[in-house]
Amino acid sequence: MRAIRYHEHGSPDVLRSEEIERPSPKRGEVLVAVRAAGINPVDAKFRDGTYPQGPHPKIPGSDFAGVVEAVGDDIDEFAVGDRVFGTGLGIDRQGTCAEYAVATTTHLAKLPDGIAFTVGAGIGLVGVTAWEGLIETAGLAVGDRCLVHGGSGGVGHVAVQLASAAGASVVATAAEQYHDRVRTLGADTVLSYDRPDLASAIGDAGAPDVVLDHRIDQHIELNTEIASQGARIVAIDSTAPELRYPDSGLARAKMHTLHHFAMISLSDYSSALKLIARLLESGNVTAEVARTYDLADTGQAHRDVAETSFLGKAVVVP
Ligand SMILES: NC(=O)c1ccc[n+]([C@@H]2O[C@H](COP(=O)([O-])OP(=O)(O)OC[C@H]3O[C@@H](n4cnc5c(N)ncnc54)[C@H](OP(=O)(O)O)[C@@H]3O)[C@@H](O)[C@H]2O)c1
């Protein structure tokens, strides 16, 4: 089969298109013919060595959608021909940027009929992050006010839809050119993340009860200032390793809870994926597929995800 692999850490240039042996599913595993593979910022962190992972050579890619080609012993839930999507690969096992990928059932759910493979491949990691972060971790509930930083990004654009579908009122930040589309996705208010009066503009929309933050080091002061009494703040990433409260007294007085969340630390993605499948089927949530690439252009997709601006997801098609 054709697969993208890297034999050492480095820039996207280390990604090579290679012909390798097709894997076979062992007991408890499912072999999927990959129809589309989603690209995420974390793929670059594994590729460049920021996050350590299993031995080389490595196939990158966490997300995928495709058709079950074969199943190993002890698989009852999936059969040959099923449409599936999944996430969480490429960490301690090989990834998804290949013609075939092997997964356990903890990485998989059935993809509803009528949902494109590119959408299934685009929503795995970001959908699980948005669901687990907002609903399971922060307990977002009907009537809550939810602030989504980076509402046009992979995680952000799904989080906006999910929070809106959960009955929250949603404030999102995004670059000006995406404001209309982020509103269409379900945000009640969209604000440019670089406006100097961002804190008061968020305050005008109402103090958020839940905040989803992908740049917690940059926003910790803002979040402390604007979030409501008892707010839950979910931090999914930062731009620097150091994190300090400029005013921890205020955070304490407001009894804020800061949750650090890492999707790749979950041991089972399947229950969240099944819920996402239902949301896809109901039309409440989708992944906006902004760009598709040939498998051989996976390196370019890695570059674009890191360096360019678009709303939604980049997806590779073998
Ligand atoms: N902990 C976890 O489980 C987890 C899971 C998924 C992702 N993550 C991390 O979360 C981050 C976002 O992931 P993603 O997939 O959504 O990435 P993405 O698709 O690249 O989106 C990043 C978003 O951030 C926006 N942005 C750029 N500068 C900003 C600023 N100064 N303030 C606010 N927003 C800004 C971008 O907007 P423009 O297009 O205008 O630049 C874009 O909408 C990444 O660092 C990723 O590694 C963590």
Automatic annotation (TrEMBL):
It comes from the Archaea. Transmembrane segments: none annotated. SUPFAM superfamilies: GroES-like, NAD(P)-binding Rossmann-fold domains. Gene3D superfamilies: Medium-chain alcohol dehydrogenases, catalytic domain, NAD(P)-binding Rossmann-like Domain. GO terms for cellular component: cytoplasm. Its main location: cytoplasm. Residues 1-22 are annotated as: Disordered. Residues 10-316 form the Enoyl reductase (ER) domain. CDD domains: zeta_crystallin (cd08253). GO terms for molecular function: adenyl nucleotide binding; anion binding; oxidoreductase activity, acting on the CH-OH group of donors, NAD or NADP as acceptor; RNA binding; zinc ion binding. One of its GO terms (biological process) is small molecule metabolic process. Keywords: Cytoplasm, NADP, RNA-binding. It is found in: Cytoplasm. Homotetramer. This is Zinc-binding dehydrogenase. It comes from Natrinema ejinorense. The lineage of its organism: Archaea, Methanobacteriati, Methanobacteriota, Stenosarchaea group, Halobacteria.
